[in-house]
Structures are given as structure tokens and as C-alpha cells.
Design brief:
This is DUF2800 domain-containing protein. It holds the Pfam family DUF2800. With 378 residues, the protein is α+β, with helices and mostly antiparallel strands. The strands form 3 sheets. The protein has a 5-stranded mixed β-sheet. Strands 6-9 form a two-stranded antiparallel ribbon. It has a two-stranded antiparallel sheet with strand order 7-8. β1 and β2 form a beta hairpin. α3 packs across α4. It is extended. The N terminus and C terminus are likely disordered. Iron/sulfur cluster binds next to α2 and α7.
Length: 378
Amino acid sequence: MSGSHNSHSIYSASGAHRWMACPPSAHLEQQFPNETSVFAEEGTAAHDLAEHKLRKALKLRSRKPVSKFHSDEMDEYTDAYVEYCLSLIEQEKEQCKDIQVLIEQKLDFSDFVKDGFGTGDLVVVGDGTLHVVDFKYGKGVVVSAERNPQMMLYALGALSLFEMLYQIDRISMVIVQPRVDNFSTYEMSVDELLDWAEGELKPKALLASKGEGEFCAGDHCRFCRAKNQCRARAVKNLELLKYEFADPSLLSDDEIAEIIGVADELSKWASDIYTYASALAINEGRQWDGFKLVESRTRRKYSDEKAVAEAAKEAGYSDIFNESLISITEMEKLMGKKKFKEILGAFVDKPKGKLTLVSEADKRKAVDPVAAEFQVEG
Ligand code: SF4
């Protein structure tokens, strides 16, 4: 399921999609810390719970994990995963009496990728087909099992464990991602898998292990630890600037279509760089030429609506409700700015804005991040 199981190998199965597309990224990434996120921690908690439930359902020993992330939702989705696994196991038992079921099995694919291993959430093997199932708790990106390198690496690891014991012809790879109702299955023959391993995987893994090959930016960059400072990604995105000099003076339809095609990646890149630069400015006091930190704008709020209504009524204003108390702006219009301040000034709060990185030209006053505690905006 997750990278956490593969953290000791720099050529992890979970990162295979990236390092196969951009082999030198495996080495470049090592310069950056492997930061965990709340989503990754939640995924690990879901994974541990799912494993526990599956072991219990198969009458194996297991201790229930404890986590602050457990919720009814997590219960429901881990149940869906377990239900899927049990039905697969039942189905396989009907085909072959002597199946093997492995949960959280370390899968070693170092015959193809230096030091490569991963952990298979569920492996079911009998005569004929080897099944590899991966549970994903994330919901941000729908993951397909179709020629998915992570799954194919797991399959290679599982195959090397069992090929002497069973007659395996086909591989079935399943991604169970219940939060987005994704049960993605892909089947291939063992011959196809081995052709891919020799023809595509091995050469790319060799390049990755030497830190060689071409940098290649694309969708896969979003999971790369080098993504904020990577030059190849910047060059690819900045290619758009060539349109500044396009002649004639208006963009053609073809050019606009091309820009729309890259706009999504371009905006993700810009947002990554902005978040990275903001965090350094706020947390480490880094100065960026032409930019400063300011407090973001915030909306005024009534501190106590009951007290506001009473004070307004006492001052002779009764037309102060729509369905609820009218807004501060409406109240100010009703009373006039001066009176509003006199009557209700004590009941209006203006929350502190978060620090945000803006151009020097911005009218707001620059703020020294050391002087106060703020959080990164966004
Ligand atoms: S950000 Fe993209 S192009 Fe750069 S090293 Fe990572 S995967 Fe390769």
C-alpha cells in the first residue's frame, strides 16, 4: 500500500512510476528529507487497521492497532477492503485446494532492481493465477492497476517466491481504493511481465542506480522530493514563456489549445514553488528579492451577537435582523461609520491574518516573521 514499507530502498516500488519516467530522480531525491504528511500517517493507520481486520477474519492472531486517525469512515472503508479480500480468497479456494494466502508479505524484487523490495498487502496464490492486492486509502488521485509499475514490481517479488511451488501462468493485480470506489484490476501473463522486467524495468533501474539517464518532468513530479528546486521541471514549465515572443501578436487557436494542455501542470508547479518560498520566508526568514511578508486580509467578526443586538436596540436601531443579525457592513451602513464605532466598536473583532508572501508593490506593511508567530497561508 504505501511508501512507508519501502523507505529503506531508494528504488522503492511506490516510487517506480517516477524513477522509471525520470531515472536520475532517484539519486537527486536523496538530498531532500523524506517528510511525512498527515495523509501518509492516516494511510498507515488505515492500513494497519485493515491488516488487523483481515487477519482476524482469517482466524489469525492479531492485536487491534490504536490510532488517533480511527473513525467510522475508516472502519467502513477497511471493511470494504477486507470484504474484497475474503471474496477473492473464497473464489481461489474453489479453483485450487492448496492455496497460499500471505498478508503483509515482504516481496523482494532485487533480481531486477538493486536492493529493491516492497510489502504486498495481500498475495494469494494457487495453480494458474497469482493475485497481488494493494490497499490504498488516499482519495486525491484515483490509481489504476493497468501496467502499474508498483504492482508489477510486487508481482515480480511474489513470483520469485512461488514459481517453484506452483504452476503460475497469469498475474492478477488489484488496487482497492474504497474511498473513491475504485477496484481496479489488471491481468497479464507471466511472460508479459518478464518481458517488461527485462526490456523496460532493468535498463531504467540500472540508469537510476547510477544516477544517470535523462531528467524528464511530468505528472510524476508531484511525488518527487526534488520537485521545488528541480531545474528540469522548471525548464519544462517555463517553455510556455516562448509565447511572449510569438508572432503575429495574437495567439493562434493551436497555441491556446497547447497552453490549456500544460496549464494544469504549470499551475501545480507555480503553487509548489510559492508554498516552498513562503515556508522558507516565514520559518527561516529567507528574503526573496522583490517580495515581502504581510498579514493576509481578514474579515471583521461580531464577538457577541446578543450583546450587539442589545446595544443597537438601546441606541434606537431595531431594523437589524434579516433572518439573523445583519452583517457588519450592513450595520455600518445603517448607523454610519462614526456611530457604528461608538455603539458597537467594542463588539467587533478583527482576527490576525496569516503571513503571506506578496510582491513588494503590495500596499500592506511588511511584517517581520520573527516578531510574531504565524502560519503559512494556504
Ligand atoms: S521533479 Fe520531476 S523532473 Fe525533476 S527530478 Fe523529480 S521527477 Fe525528475
